[in-house]
Records
---
Amino acid sequence: MTAQLAPRPGRDSARKPTLRAVEPPRLRPTTLPFVVMMAVLIALGMTGMVVLTTVLQEQAFAVQAKQHQANDLANRVSQLEAQLAEARSIRHLAIAAQDLGMRPNPNAVPMRLSDGKVFGDPQPVLGNEVPGVRYLTDAEAAAQIAAINQAAADRKAQQEAAAAAKKAADQAAAAAAATTTGANG
């Protein structure tokens, strides 16, 4: 066992213990500022999401409108290319040549373009060499189409009139049969 020294009564008692003020206990912060701060952050986040969504939708509509416009322009380009191909076609060339007084030549002879040398004996064209070939102008073609459409309409009207006459005859025969059976009964 160890011996401990006992305090001396005379020395320590002369010193008085020092008193000091005790700090008041720290108060925990209330939760109200935290809740308010979180509510503000959530409100700002939601507002940002709504604004972002709206902007993205507007941009999507703008892109869709531009795509629609691009499709319309592509269709227009396609139509113009088809018209150009039609204007460059052999049929239009033949019609333009006929309008200028040119006629098809079944007796054509070859010619070398580099020096203009003609191989064979060329013969002039009188216009009646190919009697079955006839090129139509746009007006003549439109007149033929109108005549074909009118003939089809007339044929349809005749068919409808014949069907109506047949139906009337069938109804008359049925009425006559009904009166005959009624008179016999």
---
Amino acid sequence: MLQDVVDYYSENKMSFDEPFRIRIHRALSWFKKAKDLNLKGELDLSFITMWIGFNSAYGRELSAAFKSEHVLISEFFEKILEQDTKKEISDILWQQSKNAVLSLIQNKFTFEKYWHFVNGNMDDSNWEDSLSKSIIKAKRLVAEKDTSVMLSMVLGRLYTLRNQLLHGGATFESMLNRPQIEDALQLMFEIFPVIVQLMMEAPDKEIWGKPYYMPIKE
């Protein structure tokens, strides 16, 4: 899938305006590196690198950075799902990566309220009940094929894992988080290239905005 997206970019990049071309070029450069790292068994670095590529895809000019990360990601995926007329994202959630999605949702170590409780926030002492309700909700979403809500749930789990790694909350190559890292990578390698493909099929700067830190030519 990734190579198909890279080939599409190579064939069409000169039809894109410069800001959009830079956005896609950056995202694909990180995705390709993430794939190399994954093949070498460097799962932690592959996950982090994949997330940088995702940031390259959805990140907008600094004026938008005052919004929370969750809001920016949510807005981005609303636009992606609007473009996804072939329901490719749905196919990934409900077919190709269904087991990884459900595993991430059921895993307490990707559930933010669990970590709040572990770190002493007694307001989240009912995290087990909250997790159980979340799992029941996810199973209902599978039956209803509610792509938007399920995508939001699983991105929340990925974001918790992202925070754990990027903020130094895990040991490099720790065996404790291998299951969730493996599930996350399976999903990310399926869904992120599709995101870039959908963006390239609708290269409208009004939709995607300008990327962070445009190159400065002096």
---
Amino acid sequence: MKVKGRNAGRPAFSGKQFWGKITEFPAPARLAIIMALVNLLPGPALADGGFSSPDRLGAGLTFGHSYDSPPTFGFFQINGLLQYDYDDIWPHPAPELLFFKVEGSLGVADYEEGIRLFSSANILAQYYLAEASVRWRPYVEAGIGLIYSDFQVEDQGLRLNFNPQAGVGCDFMSGGGIIWYGNFRIHHLSNGNLHDDNRGIDSVLIQIGRYF
């Protein structure tokens, strides 16, 4: 597909360039970023029971970049999550290591040299690959939700789209008892043919954060 506009012939947006854009954010957005970073600093963990706690609150940061549907773009989000034992949410038998996660993300994308809103809300099934251990607990996860982008690539059709994604991750307990998480996901955006134009966007992202 031919790339139109200012991105014609423009190389993929680099992480260094994207971080340079942070200084261009409005003051409220910069304050939100600073608050999120402060929340990630070491401090007391509020999730009683550590890895064995079935219900937890988490907060973190997402760094991503699209690789399909040019022009490609980078994005940054602040995300929060609620994690529950799967049996507590859905009234049917489930594996002991299966959890349910509700996640919301608020952020921006650098699209055609402009900062645009890029936010989502998702639900995910999260399956741990090991029992609670001393420090590490890997998992796989997959889910779907809705995502809003304040821009459209050519033939995208809608700005509010479905947001299926899947990935792998790991929880990590630091020496101070703080539980961190990190994951890598494949991220998709499309309208499920609710519009005649349904050009999707595929991305990869890294998410890091901690539980409280």
